[in-house]
Every structure is written in C-alpha cells, then in structure tokens.
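README: folding subset

This subset contains proteins for which both the sequence and a predicted structure token string are available. Records are stored as plain text. Below is the entry for ArsR family transcription regulator protein (142 residues), shown exactly as it appears on disk.
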Amino acid sequence: MQRAGSWPTAASLVRIYSNNGREYNPGCIILQMRPYKHPATDEFVLERVLYALSDSIRLEIVRHLARVECATCGELDGGRPKSTVSHHFKVLREAGLVRTESNGTAHINTLRSADIEQRFPGLLSAILAQQDKLPSRRKKAA
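--- output ---
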C-alpha cells in the first residue's frame, strides 16, 4: 500500500488492467479523440448549407477542397487562429459540406460533394462555378 502523496512505484505502473476490452496503465492518462459527428445526407438542411457557404473563409475552404482530394486543417488555416479555423470547420461539418477524420494528430478534411449533389442536385457545382464577384472594398484614389 502506498502512502498518501507518494508517487506510484515502477511495479505498479507496469501492471496492466483491462477495461471494456481495452488495456490501459492506471498511472497514465489515455487521451482519445472523439469521432466527429457528421449529418446523414437526408439530414442536410438547405438553409444551413447556404449559411455555411455565406462566409468568405468557409467558401474559400470549400473551393480548396473541391480542387484536392483531401487536406489537413493546417493546409487550410490560411494563417488564421486555431480557434477561428475550428469554428469554421464545425459549421461546415454541421452543414454536411465537409467530413473530418482524425489520423493521429492530424485532421483530414474531404468535401462531401457526392452527398451534397445527391441531396441538392447542381447546388455545389453552381456555387463553385461562380467567381468571387464581391466589389472591392478599397477606396478609389481621388
């Protein structure tokens, strides 16, 4: 028996215990990422998809994913703070536009274009075909 406040012995750290078929060491904390939740195709809501695409950063992410098979969050962050990028990916995931899978410490993102096409035929291709037509915010020199 260990005294209160003392560190566990090496022998106690080596012991392996089983918990629901998984082995773990009681002296270690095991961190496992929860899998991301993605809506089923029939749960896509048009308003949510359009809201997700109404932000220029999220639209930029979707356009990039349309050009490549997959990309990590780091490839798509554009130098923005991690919390901001996480928020944008959450909105895209909840709308059903993006699927995010954990691969070790990396998060791999893919565009769910086939699912969007199945639920809303032609929507994504029409949006991706449009160029950025927002007027320039720079003031004209007088």
